[in-house]
């Protein structure tokens, strides 16, 4: 079968790889859509320290069940599914706390092990969620939106909470939608005005362009000048990591999901002075996936506008170079496998 490999930083290759049949408890999928993730782009750029080459990327999938192994009762041939692309060891502290999404020894599809950018793939049945009412395009968007949903949960957003979200990629948009669904009043922040209408459609009340307007003025316009109770960082830059601490209200919560590629230094006195709750958020739980599927069925996301462009598998390599050339203008590139 055909697959796409990232052979080394900056280089991809469409090639033929061995197809596999499902064993006990496994399901064989025909992969219809694969969304490109920021982590896949980092692999392409040689900036993902968790990756070795060559690697088949892809973990955001919209797929169809074509065969089931023995003992599989949770899905049948013909079902449309989305995959939870992480593994859990069951023994580390996170797993023992029931937070499998943060497993110390997690291996994400397409990162620490080969991913789904191929005609078929075989996954454990327990990692699949069936949703026959959505399209394959919709299903390919579930994972990054679920990562955003997890952020909104980690921030414990309550009705009326003022929330600022830095970064309007799909994870940021997922956090906006999750926070808005929980009753938060969201201001979306990005450096690109092209993200404005999509952020508002996901549930933000307001959009703030931090390239054209000074960020330090933002808190003055929120909650009578007190600033936001919650700040979400979904960018991964030292500037936004620090700004989150600067603009959050006293006694506020800051949640980081953006993956910073180098160490960030802080004025730690603000942690104490503001008595902040500072949290990380990683991947997403089965509950977060289910919550997103439910919001998707209610059409709570501007689904038709989240996908910037489609590429056939034979041109998936070009999707990486196009994205690398215009990171600001891309919400989601999707590769159409079949
Ligand atoms: Zn992803
Ligand atoms: Zn674990």
Describe the structure.
It contains 11 helices and 15 strands. It is α/β, with parallel strands linked by helices. The protein folds into 2 domains: 2-141 and 307-336, Quinone Oxidoreductase, Chain A, domain 1, CATH 3.90.180.10; 147-280, NAD(P)-binding Rossmann-like Domain (Rossmann fold). Strands 3, 4, 5, 6, 7, 14 and 15 form a 7-stranded mixed sheet that branches. Helix 4 (142-154) crosses helix 5 and helix 4 packs across helix 9. The longest helix is centred in the middle third of the chain and has 13 residues, at 142-154. The termini are close together. The mean pLDDT is 96. Bound molecules: zinc ion (2 copies). One zinc ion (ZN) binds at residues 88-89, 91-92, 94-95, 103-105.
Give a quick rundown of the structure:
With 338 residues, the chain is α/β, with parallel strands linked by helices.
Topology record:
Blueprint: E1 2-8, E2 11-16, E3 26-35, H1 38-45, E4 60-68, E5 80-83, H2 93-96, E6 120-124, E7 128-130, H3 136-140, H4 142-154, E8 162-166, H5 170-181, E9 185-190, H6 196-201, E10 206-209, E11 230-233, H7 238-247, E12 253-256, H8 269-273, E13 277-280, H9 286-297, H10 303-306, E14 309-312, H11 316-325, E15 333-336
Helix pairs in contact: 4-5, 4-9
Bound molecules: zinc ion (2 copies).
CATH uppermost class of the largest domain:
Alpha Beta
CATH architecture classification of the largest domain? Alpha-Beta Complex
Total number of helical segments?
A: 11
State the major sheet: 7 strands, mixed
Please indicate the count of domains. Answer: 2
- The unreliable regions are none
CATH superfamily of the largest domain: Medium-chain alcohol dehydrogenases, catalytic domain
State the share of residues found in helices, binned by percent: 25-40%
Q: Which fold name corresponds to the CATH topology of the largest domain? A: Quinone Oxidoreductase, Chain A, domain 1
Mean pLDDT: 96
